[in-house]
Write the structure tokens for this entry.
Amino acid sequence: MTAKKSTLVDCNNCEFSCIRDLLTNDDRLGLFERLLKRQQQVLKGETVFRHGQPFHAGYAVTSGTFMSYRLLEGGEEQVLGFHLPGEPFGLDGVRNSKYEYTTKALEEGFVCELGFHDLGLLGDSYQEFQEQLILVMSGQLIQAQRQSLLAARPSAEERLAAFLLNLSQRLSARGFNATDFRLSMSRKAIACYLGLAEGTVSRVFKRFEAQKLLAISAKKVHLLDADGLDAYARILHSG
């Protein structure tokens, strides 16, 4: 990872609450901020950490899109998930003191880094931090479970529709445009994530375009009929 820009974090002036919510005691917030490194640049294709490396920090995306994956025996990537601006990742490495997957940037982006070795400096607030961390990790687990259900859907149309609506909802939750967004991941990565062939994903995209459900220009997607996509996704909103 390229630490091209690294400054102290001003969590109060950050548009995201991804890491700040781990500590709600304002008296300790200033100290907590000094434990963070912000705006660490990660170039396209660069890894933030690798599977099996000793755990030392959790991260949150401040810009760009990141992908977590494991390498299979044949060298193929098993895509586990995508991380959008405002979303934390890598925190589950605290459980076994090592990272359980590799995370890389799909485009040039920036992350905040929360080092865990100095958390004892939080003093009495450390227990509060631990409790909040459990909640955040539980939220990540729920999100991962929802995402894993995508590949269990019977048809390619259902999987892709649910995937796109999931991205839309997550972006909306962070204050971004829910109907116009960039798909930084390749068709191959989407296919791997959804358990489909790359050609199948491309064909379904074209089918959705023909049905006026969405419009695609390069990597930009415009959702024209979210209700129509939801009709394919079926149970997406039940979670």
